[in-house]
Write a structure and sequence with these properties.
By secondary structure, the protein is α+β, with helices and mostly antiparallel strands. The chain is built from two helices and eight strands; from the N terminus they run E-E-E-E-H-E-E-H-E-E.
Length: 170
């Protein structure tokens, strides 16, 4: 009978909850999977049962381990049948997730700068003024002596306006 192995590719513990077909239980089964760990889920069972467990999590990002390198989105968990997942695959997925989250952060900061600019432009129009451009700076404040990881500026320019020349960074 096959075994199902699931690896946690996030930076926090994951509580893997699942139901097993034909077992009437009020609460789902539970397996805690630590950061970067791989665990056998449930027990050796039929392919149908293991496929049912997998289907419960595919909508939430569970991918086959051989799809890790082809996946563009965040990979929370990956699985493999009959063989524990190689540590290298888990590390690749965690590094991939770091890149995905960093890019998502850049995009969210740009969207935030546009929203702030639009609100400021609306308020300026209400008092008869105009806003042609706005620069939003985001800097991570670090108190423990580490190096700041985020220090960027986003310039939002009104349609038909030229961007300002960049100021020297401090």
């Amino acid at each position: 009978m096959p075994k199902l192995y699931v690896a946690n590719c996030t930076k926090q513990d994951h509580h893997f909850l699942f139901r097993v077909p034909e077992i009437n239980r009020e609460s789902p089964f539970h397996m805690k999977i630590g950061v970067g760990k791989c665990e056998q889920i449930y027990k050796e069972d039929s392919t149908d049962v293991l496929d049912a467990i997998i289907r419960q999590h595919t909508d939430y990002g569970l991918v086959r381990v051989d799809e890790v390198d082809r996946t563009k989105e965040f990979i929370g968990m990956c699985y493999q049948i009959d063989k524990p997942i190689n540590v290298d695959a888990i590390v690749r997925a965690i590094n991939h997730n770091d890149e995905v989250l960093a890019q998502r952060g850049v995009e969210l900061r740009k969207e935030t700068a546009v929203a702030i600019s639009e609100q400021a432009a609306r308020e300026a129009r209400e008092v008869g003024g105009a806003l042609t451009s706005m620069e939003v700076s985001i800097e991570e404040v670090v108190e423990n002596g580490d190096t700041a990881k985020i220090n960027e500026s986003v310039e939002v320019v009104a349609e038909g306006q030229a961007p300002r020349s960049r100021r020297a960074q401090k």
